[in-house]
Predict the structure.
Amino acid sequence: MPTEHLFVDGALAAADMARRIAMILGDAVAQRGVAAIALSGGRSPRPVLEALAGAALDWDKVIVTLVDERWVAPDHADSNERLVRETLLQGKAAAARFVPMKNKAVDAYAGQAECEAAFAALPWPLDIVLLGMGEDGHTASLFPGAAELAEGLSTGALTLAVTPPAAPHQRMSMSAGAILASRHIFLQIGGAAKKAVYDRALAGGPVEELPVRLALCQHAVSVEVWISE
Ligand SMILES: O=C1O[C@H](COP(=O)(O)O)[C@@H](O)[C@H](O)[C@H]1O
């Protein structure tokens, strides 16, 4: 069962999550000399990343990467890299080392090997994987109904290329195995619609139906969920 942090307000939830992330990254730097976090994109993480940018950390010892990425140019409005650069990698936090998923390959499938090599060079286990969830129960870019979902849930690779069944852009995604190779999994759930999906996921059932179950219905890695109205 995940640890749940309940908030009436999304801004308070974001501030609390940022504090907890900063604490874990700070501990990792103190203990290992390096800290690593993988971030989700989309709309939900923006306030968390803006709050985290102000944390007093040895940012030059922090590695930041992505849980998933849309295969678009880094200055595209839908780019998760752009989100991270505009929100987190500002001020002192700009000293962090950012490891992108997107490379110059013509599509995500052609770019997967280079992305995999970049991920293999990260300091595993990552300290935190910050997940979001769509209302269809997808997490990272592991979408229900995607041709690559079975691969994403079973591959020994850290990353895979994905074509979402009903969302724009090819994606690069961390695999389930990579997500579960982290020390802490954090999940953001905002709004009543996502809360209903989250409750359904927690009740149990096939991970193929609601891929977020890969994180929620396991006991190997600690999971904390920030839930706001
Ligand atoms: O496509 C994506 O969607 C999920 C959820 O995004 P949100 O906008 O509803 O917060 C996100 O976790 C994932 O990283 C992103 O690529």
Summary: The chain has one domain: 3-228. The pocket of LXAUTJHC is lined by residues 40-44, 67-68, 80, 132, 134, 141, 167 (CB under 6 Å).
